[in-house]
Amino acid sequence: xxxxxxxxxxxxxxxxxxxxxxxxxxxxxxxxxxxxxxxxxxxxxxxxxxxxxxxxxxxxxxxxxxxxxxxxxxxxxxxxxxxxxxxxxxxxxxxxxxxxxxxxxxxxxxxxxxxxxxxxxxxxxxxxxxxxxxxxxxxxxxxxxxxxxxxxxxxxxxxxxxxxxxxxxxxxxxxxxxxxxxxxxxxxxxxxxxxxxxxxxxxxxxxxxxxxxxxxxxxxxxxxxxxxxxxxxxxxxxxxxxxxxxxxxxxxxxxxxxxxxxxxxxxxxxxxxxxxxxxx
Length: 280
Description:
This protein is α+β, with helices and mostly antiparallel strands. The chain has two domains: 84 residues, no CATH class; 186 residues, Immunoglobulins (Immunoglobulin-like), CATH 2.60.40. 21% of the residues lie in helices and 25% in strands. The protein contains ten helices and eight strands. The strands form two sheets. The protein has a five-stranded antiparallel sheet with strand order 5-4-3-7-8, with no helix packed on it. A hairpin with a 3-residue loop joins strand 4 and strand 5. It is elongated.
């Protein structure tokens, strides 16, 4: 709790992205003297405030102080210059990607880099920065799921039906083109598949929910339920009865920890698919 209070005080003192604000822990005072543009770009990124975003603060309030090892290695409001570039002083050596990323993105509750290494993206020769910086090489304007439009088109849904002799089973195929497991990040982030069965009048008969992401319970450890990169995954949903006329499936990306009953103003609808059950 003491760490959390210090982070809140620091965050209130220096708003993210403010030009001329003190570098703070993890950011040597001389960096913005020569790299002012880069400094301003980075200060506007989520990495720079990784320990003060609403989603992180909500998750940290549940008692996971170990998260600060990656979210605020130097005790500031996020990840500072030396946290990635090292503490040996200027001139800093070039960073080896994705090795430097794996320090945190393969921490407990993370499989981002490990899943990237066996992904189709890695086999095609794509690197982390190809997506998270795009064509802005040399900049520090890192983009991620919270960046506007970043998740557009990242995942898709398809629905087909199988007759099992006595009833139908819906086959929901979930595909994504992220270069690593989806969602990336820690236990707070999740992807939800909602499958709704509708009657002939369009009213909801039944809703089935599936959560993808990391699960962590005290004493039980970590469990990886993310969506791996590659050909996709098929979810089977037996229809509840012969009254089901149509199906509607939504795929949601959520940043806040907890279930769907917890509000998440940043929630993103990744895709929606609909299907009319034959012969009904």
